[in-house]
From TrEMBL:
SUPFAM superfamilies: DPP6 N-terminal domain-like, Tricorn protease N-terminal domain
Source domain of life: Eukaryota
Lineage, opening ranks: Eukaryota, Viridiplantae, Streptophyta, Embryophyta, Tracheophyta
One Gene Ontology term of the molecular function aspect: RNA-DNA hybrid ribonuclease activity
Protein name, UniProt field: Thylakoidal processing peptidase 1
Signal peptide positions on this chain: 1-25
Domain spans labelled RNase H type-1: 731-793
Alphabetized UniProt keyword annotations: Signal
Pfam families: PD40, RVT_3
UniProt cross-references to InterPro entries, sorted A to Z: 6-blade_b-propeller_TolB-like (IPR011042), RNase_H-like_dom_plant (IPR044730), RNaseH_domain (IPR002156), WD40 (IPR011659)
CDD domains to which the protein is assigned, alphabetical: RNase_H_like
Amino acid sequence: MKPQLLHSFLFQFFLLCTAASENEAQSTGETIVFTTLGRSDYAWDIFTLPSSDPPNPSNEHRITDGVSVNFNGHLPSSPSSSILSLLRNRSLIQAPSPQAPTGLQLIYVTERNGMTNIYYDALYCGVLRSSRSRSALETPVRVQAPLLGLEESKHRVSMKDRPSLSGENLIYVSTHEDPGEPRTSWAAVYSTHLGTGLTRRLTPYGVADFSPAVSPSGVWTAVASYGEDGWDGEVEELSTNIYIFLTRDATNRVKVVEHGGWPCWVDDSTLYFHRKSDDQWMSVYKATFPKDKPILANSVKIQRVTPPGLHAFTPATSPGNHMFIALATRRPNSSFRHIELFDTVKNEFIELTRHVSPTTHHFNPFISPDSAQVGYHKCRGENNGGQTSQLLLENVKSPVANLSLFRVDGSFPTFSTAGDRIAYVNFPGIYVVNRNGSNLRRVSPLNAFAIAWDTVRKGILYTSAGPEFSSESTEVDVVAIDVDNVDGSNHRRLTVNGKNNAFPSPSPDGKRIVFRSGRTGHKNLYIMDAIEGEMGGLQKLTDGPWTDTMCNWSPDGDWIAFASDRHNPGSGCFELYLIHPNGTGLRRLISSGKSGRTNHPSFSPDGKTITFTTDYGGISAEPISNPHQFGPYGEIYTIKLDGSDLKRLTHNSYEDGTPSWAPVYISQVDVVWSKRTQCAFEDCHWLNKMSGGRGTMVEPLGSVSLNLLASALLWKRNCGGFTRASYVLKGYKQVIVEMDNLEALSIINGSHSDNISITLVAHILNIRNRNWNIQFKHVARTGNCVSDMLSKLAPIADFSINHWNPLQHLLQNDMMIGY
Ligand SMILES: *[C@@H]1O[C@H](CO)[C@@H](O)[C@H](O)[C@H]1NC(C)=O
Ligand SMILES: *[C@@H]1O[C@H](CO)[C@@H](O)[C@H](O)[C@H]1NC(C)=O
Ligand SMILES: *[C@@H]1O[C@H](CO)[C@@H](O)[C@H](O)[C@H]1NC(C)=O
Ligand SMILES: *[C@@H]1O[C@H](CO)[C@@H](O)[C@H](O)[C@H]1NC(C)=O
Ligand SMILES: *[C@@H]1O[C@H](CO)[C@@H](O)[C@H](O)[C@H]1NC(C)=O
Ligand SMILES: *[C@@H]1O[C@H](CO)[C@@H](O)[C@H](O)[C@H]1NC(C)=O
Ligand SMILES: *[C@@H]1O[C@H](CO)[C@@H](O)[C@H](O)[C@H]1NC(C)=O
């Protein structure tokens, strides 16, 4: 050890001790952090547009609070007075005056205070006197009331979804009951009487149901369900069937449609649904029940409603309306999901939201009972009247009282050993931020994944990085980065052969590093010297023709936990294993059932428990109802080292991944930062596939980084810039970047160095290295550049095209909980 290092080692050791004793004092529990792809950008509100007037920004109305994450609305037909009279918490009902006319009432899902719940909002058209100006302002007064308390879910944490009101009963999905089987969804439909709270499960035990819809008479409920066959691991379109049953008592359950999802009723014998057609377009279909025969799958008449040539899905109807339905579309000439009407008499589409917010995704339409309004949710954006604080640490309601659970706005979030800083990766770039959100810094421009802090030397991070601008994406090496010395000499490469060396995890004494390497042609585990790297000594820990990966060294030094498919090599099925660092004691910690995906183990500070991400809880909603998630099944779990006490911590329909334990307890409060623009999420990648002319599949090509890049340039140059990528015909390998900012354009076009915007340049160099034709086009625009920038921030932040990344397969292999 060099004298300098030794000195710094002693100094850090001293710091560590003081930090630890400080934290000890406040410690009353434990903390797990994890990430959810895109979720921090889901600043959603519910909006409406009239169904008959030409849509324009002035007749679009935001009808939720502009603060929470609000989605999947339903406009009930019962009068608001009767709903309000049913609410059990009387203190919530402070209508402005009993006579005040309600403008609108809405039932919807909301994520707030770390939980999902179903809320009821009534908007009154009240008149408020502003104290500052004398003018009277027409301001809607909002009553917001939760429709469910904790008791309806037996005081368990759960996801709630797809509410609708039928008489005095709320029908909805909840995930609070554990089916007790690996890879089985917890989603089931429940009915709660609003007046008494009496709750009844409508889904049979042993079955999962999604997307419930109640018929106009209230007699029938339709659901999408696998029935008893269960989930087979799909993450795109689910191969569900549609079942109906009596809403009253869940009897008379019968399958009415083979292959379909997202049912909605026009009357008690007509429902619409979506399915992927044989020509690969998602399309809306109509099912008509026989009037004179028993309703069975083979007696139901099924007709395709929407034509090939575009994806049409998540249909919505209103009672008795045989004239039109609403649906979401992805058209070949748009990268955005829009809400349209479909005239079922003339067989014509009527576009709605593209006239209002063309470059924003819109989800899951619904129609008011009188057919006059169409609702949907979308990102509120800065100019849609909402204010959202972007959260660095989002407190997520934990089922364990003294375990804090935080969603971090960054991938592979990892706390420093002293618990004061968080590192995360951003594809590309590694960032470090204080845990209170201050002092955010990029400490490396590398395209890297998986990070771990050194346990002894303060400020040293280990990561797995591809060589900068490498065209060979499998070249990955373990690198140590000194985050407190960011002058270019702070990177040390510890592995040298570039054979997919990744997932470094240091031993608690800071002397060695376990990592996985593909150097033999298979990914197995190795241990090397933490300072000298593999040149200072290399031990092969596991060996075999399978994949061992995502290793984590226990705090007591005795165990290494990892994910492996060794029980079924190449199957893509990963389970968790434990091994001693000396190669003895190998055992399986958890099996995840047939083709399960259980990944990313991380030890608790006391070494007795492991947190990980898994598809153990199946899928919780139809993936098409959300933006893109690689693995919509991912949930965070814990298990004791002896295999006992398996616990599910998170409940949602997103991919929760890469959990890690913090060394200190952090109180369960959001940490806000005002760092990034919102709404930078992508639509389901599989909907980007469109059938083009001459039968060729066309994929819009581009990358999320073009988007990030545009925003980065905006910030940097304080000026407008707009990028879009063109569609790319398979085989033609061409991408067109359009910008309205000549200055930015010439920088990108001319630059072969990395000092302007590493993101853009890296990706463009990558495209060039692959002999793609890349064209830069200036798109003329007029107007003031600063105000243009402001007006364009929201749509650009929404910019969403197919995720193309040179490390794409690594992402899928390693970061995401897929394989
Ligand atoms: C969490 O609470 C349980 C019971 O209240 C207690 O046994 C346990 O020690 C606590 N854990 C920590 C880390 O404080
Ligand atoms: C009723 O609602 C109020 C306001 O949100 C809340 O403070 C109170 O705890 C609630 N009471 C019950 C019994 O849930
Ligand atoms: C997409 O195509 C439709 C129908 O062909 C057309 O009406 C619409 O204007 C096009 N949209 C864009 C954004 O070009
Ligand atoms: C955040 O934490 C840093 C480091 O602990 C501290 O210096 C800073 O004052 C804190 N900032 C705020 C706003 O609390
Ligand atoms: C291997 O290591 C474990 C714990 O780290 C220890 O209990 C065991 O005795 C060791 N076995 C050998 C053969 O050294
Ligand atoms: C981009 O660069 C190429 C060559 O470096 C040049 O010929 C072309 O005019 C540039 N395009 C724009 C739009 O600046
Ligand atoms: C890139 O960095 C070099 C050296 O630091 C500097 O001279 C040059 O101006 C930078 N280029 C731009 C466009 O900022």
